[in-house]
Amino acid sequence: MEDFTYILQKITEKKELLTEEAGFALRQIVTGKVNPSRTAAFLYGMSCKGETVEELTAFVHVMRDAAVNVNVDTESAIDLCGTGGDKSGTFNISTAAMFVTAGADVPVLKHGNAGVSSKSGSYDVLKCLGVHPDLPKEKVENCFRETGMAFMFAPLFHPAMAHVMPVRKELGMRTFFNIMGPMLNPAGVRRQVIGAFSRETAHNIVRILLNLGTEFAYAVHADDGLDELSTTAPTHVYQLIDRNVTNSRIVHSGVFGLSQTTLQDLRGGSPEINAEIIRAVLDDKATRAQREVVLLNAAFAIHTSGIYDDIQEAYYAAEESLESGNARDALNKFAICTSDLHNSSI
To answer: What does the DSSP assignment read for 199-235?
Structure first.
């Protein structure tokens, strides 16, 4: 394998890296063998060149190999998260949808982080909801077995990122790590809903997941800029099913008879404010706009599990989860379990 200088020269000339070269370069970085200035040059150069699906697939393999693995049964389990970076200022929609999904008896293995491109990441709002979102591997495994839910705080499960995070913060720009993040679930889930910051990125994500052997996935991007399914504008949806990637289809904001709304109706704020909104949603006391956008995203998450063949049935299951109180109970059960495990010496 050529040295790292050769790799930098190649991307400077906007040449695609071979799979082996891409894997070698990132492996050198995450094992601390590349200094910060050369790491920054690599990240910036890849961004300027534009990353290919093959390069990104190689990067994901490297990061998955370096992760702390969570060993649980992933049958029918889903993850739902986004790349971030949409700068929309909405409340934590996918985190709310997590509990509606779990309340429909779908196992949830959510992977997330603290806020980087937003005021409130999933980690931040979960803390305000009474959850201990920073459990280590063994306690995450126990929590999932007890509740059918887990949250894996990215920094605890990707120690290799320690060599990259200072550089990413110093660069202050979007890099391929934003694209990779949702595909690095430590439990190795094979069913996912991933929101993307652009339509092209959504398409690339399902193609990467195909290379990685994912069973079923939706990758979505809305015309209003959201990295979620939106009730304010049409959403472009790419689907991975039966080892095939479908062309983009449009999910209109009025699907399932939902009302047209505005981004202002979905605005959030601090983690505390967003937690209040999520509690109102789960208590079925939120505004119609807040309730419906969560139901829409939960419906696609529930359908991703494979438990329901029809997306309309999955939507009905999401409604039942909310109206029966099962979604609220899922949050309460999760909060109690994570607190008990946090305080346990086992």
So the answer is: HHHHHHHHHHHHHTT-SEEEEEEETTS-SS--SSS-E
Degrees to nearest 5, angle at CA 22 with 215 and 155: 65
5 and 35 Cβ atoms separated by less than 8 Å: no
Q: What is the pLDDT of residues 255-278, one digit of tens each?
A: 999 999 999 999 999 999 999 999
Q: How far is CA 292 from CA 98, 122, 283, 314, 316, in A?
A: 14, 19, 14, 14, 12
Within 8 A by CB and 6+ apart from 215, the residues are 190, 191, 306
- The model's pTM is 0.94
Domain 4-50, architecture per CATH: Up-down Bundle (1.20)
| Per CATH, domain 79-156+176-337 is 3.60.21.10 | no
**Torsion angle of the four alpha carbons 90, 190, 317, 274, in this order, in degrees rounded to the nearest 10:** -20
